[in-house]
């Protein structure tokens, strides 16, 4: 039991170090350097998207950076996606959000908004050869919308009246693709975004006039970061009066800018796309591997501890093990990630960096599975082995260490390698909290060039190569263990 206590202490100590570092780092950066963490979308051109150098640009990005420079503060852009950004803002994980957020009375209950900086309206778009001309033609059909957006809310508000069904996606590219592939007959989007997408290559057409007119605003959590909000308003007023605002809009919506973007897309062969984006994709892979290795390390400690608890001759310890395995193996990984990243900060009142939240998420989820096969591996050893060892005078701990575990290890090792592969694949779910791993990197690239098929093929091939290598390793280890 002494070893078990030491293991528990190491787990707790590791988690405390991770959390303590995240809190200290977050507070230190924001207090001393006055850096505000600003959340944004990942696929909302021309307001936010990644350029050819995979740097985040767009109307919103230029506005917030120009204002920050003029008003004397710094910003750190967090491309987490619109839905995740709104949730993270409410949890206090972000200082502000600029993501083409339409100012509404409902949102004002949770957010404080700046002065409006861009007027907009909702339009409906359909495929280029579609016969859909108006809302009446949507009866009984499926429409694509984006999660948490004003355009999506508008579609839902008229859904019963016109008798159509909706399907939601987290990014604009998937919304457009669902229409162009014929899975949905139409989509709802903000007018300037839809116009830009069509002008730069999206095979859609707008069939309705702008409705539900509104305006975009920069937002902070209600009652928080009022100084930042005042700085934004003051800066916005200045850039509108000195002409900087007009230059920013023209930079992305001017005829030459749109033509250049469209011309560039027509040259996107598979090879040219790989050459253009290999740095970003390999960077995403590096982040994926780091997440996987760290998570497996902590999950292994976690899993061994709770797996051992499940086999010691103590009913309370057995119950704790069973409960932990049941809870963390039963929770969907996506729900667990959002709970840790946006739910826990509401309870403790401190930020948790997305990377740390991702490590904790994978540790708990993968650790529960590890605990299950550690427990199962030990229980698979013939019970007579323990009885024989004890009859020879060996204490329980030594009998477990010298007799049972060496036999159980042969059963467990292949499962350990397989869990490594599963963890590698599970890192893709962490894109929901904005971690820039391989999947999130793919989303950001596609937001710029709308080359979904080619980019996802590259991402799939990268995953396939790594998983194939790990599978070969698993088989090699398994043969060595049998030999």
UniProtKB/TrEMBL annotation:
| UniProt entry keywords in alphabetical sequence | Cell membrane, Membrane, Transmembrane, Transmembrane helix, Transport
Specify the superkingdom.
Bacteria
Query: Which intervals of the chain form a coiled coil?
Result: none
Primary residence: membrane
Enumerate the Gene3D superfamilies for this protein: MetI-like, Periplasmic binding protein-like II
Q: How does it sit in the membrane?
A: Multi-pass membrane protein
> InterPro entries per the record?
AA_ABC_transptr_permease_3TM, ArtM/GltK/GlnP/TcyL/YhdX-like, Iontro_rcpt_C, MetI-like, MetI-like_sf, Solute-binding_3/MltF_N
GO MF entries:
ligand-gated monoatomic ion channel activity
Under the heading SUPFAM superfamilies, the entry gives: MetI-like, Periplasmic binding protein-like II
User: Which residue numbers delimit the ABC transmembrane type-1 domain?
Assistant: 285-474
Q: Which PROSITE patterns does the annotation name?
A: ABC_TM1 (PS50928)
Q: Which Pfam families match?
A: BPD_transp_1, SBP_bac_3
- What are the subcellular locations of this protein? Cell membrane
Membrane-crossing residue ranges in chain numbering: 289-312, 324-344, 455-473
Gene Ontology cellular-component terms for this entry are: ATP-binding cassette (ABC) transporter complex
UniProt cross-references to SMART domains, sorted A to Z: PBPb (SM00062), PBPe (SM00079)
GO BP: any one term: amino acid transport
Similarity annotation? Belongs to the binding-protein-dependent transport system permease family.
Return the NCBIfam families for the record.
HEQRo_perm_3TM
Name listed for the protein in its UniProt record: Amino acid ABC transporter substrate-binding protein, PAAT family / amino acid ABC transporter membrane protein, PAAT family
Q: Which organism was this protein described from? A: Pediococcus pentosaceus (strain ATCC 25745 / CCUG 21536 / LMG 10740 / 183-1w)
């Amino acid at each position: 039991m002494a070893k078990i206590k030491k293991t528990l202490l190491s787990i707790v100590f590791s988690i405390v170090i991770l959390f303590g570092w995240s809190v200290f780092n977050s507070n230190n950066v924001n207090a001393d350097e006055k850096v505000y963490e600003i959340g944004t979308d990942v696929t909302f051109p021309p307001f936010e998207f990644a350029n050819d150098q995979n740097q985040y640009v767009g109307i919103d990005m230029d506005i917030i950076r120009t204002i920050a420079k003029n008003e004397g503060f710094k910003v750190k852009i967090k491309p987490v996606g619109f839905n995740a950004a709104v949730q993270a803002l409410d949890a206090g994980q972000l200082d502000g959000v600029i993501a083409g957020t339409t100012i509404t009375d409902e949102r004002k209950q949770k957010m404080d908004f700046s002065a409006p900086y861009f007027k907009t309206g909702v339009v409906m778009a359909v495929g280029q050869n579609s016969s859909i001309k108006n809302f009446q033609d949507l009866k009984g059909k499926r429409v694509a919308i984006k999660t948490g957006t004003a355009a999506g809310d508008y579609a839902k508000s008229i859904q019963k009246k016109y008798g159509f069904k909706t399907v939601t996606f987290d990014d604009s590219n998937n919304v457009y693709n669902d229409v162009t592939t014929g899975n949905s007959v139409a989509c709802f989007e903000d007018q300037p975004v839809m116009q830009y997408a069509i002008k730069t290559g999206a095979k859609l057409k707008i069939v309705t006039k702008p409705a539900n007119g509104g305006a975009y605003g920069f937002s902070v959590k209600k009652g928080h970061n009022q100084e930042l909000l005042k700085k934004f308003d003051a800066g916005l007023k200045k850039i509108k009066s000195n002409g900087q605002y007009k230059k920013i809009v023209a930079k992305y919506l001017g005829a030459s800018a749109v033509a250049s973007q469209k011309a560039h897309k027509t040259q996107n062969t598979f090879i040219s796309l790989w050459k253009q984006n290999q740095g970003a994709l390999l960077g995403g892979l590096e982040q994926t591997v780091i997440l996987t290795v760290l998570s497996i390390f902590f999950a292994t400690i976690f899993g061994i501890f709770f797996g051992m608890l499940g086999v010691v001759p103590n009913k309370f310890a057995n119950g704790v093990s069973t409960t932990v395995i049941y809870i963390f193996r039963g929770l969907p990984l996506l729900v667990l990630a959002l709970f840790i990243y946006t739910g826990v900060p509401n309870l403790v009142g401190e930020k948790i960096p997305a990377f740390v939240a991702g490590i904790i998420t994978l540790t708990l989820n993968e650790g529960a599975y590890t605990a299950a096969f550690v427990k199962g591996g030990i229980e698979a050893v013939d019970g007579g082995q323990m009885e024989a060892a004890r009859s020879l005078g060996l204490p329980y701990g030594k009998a477990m260490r010298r007799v049972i575990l060496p036999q159980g290890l042969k059963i467990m090792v292949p499962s350990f390698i397989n869990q490594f592969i599963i963890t590698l694949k599970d890192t893709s779910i962490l894109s929901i909290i904005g971690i820039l791993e391989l999947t999130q990197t793919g989303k950001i690239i596609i937001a710029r060039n709308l080359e979904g098929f080619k980019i996802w093929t590259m991402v799939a091939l990268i995953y396939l190569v790594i998983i194939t290598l790990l599978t070969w390793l698993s088989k090699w280890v398994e043969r060595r263990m049998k030999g």
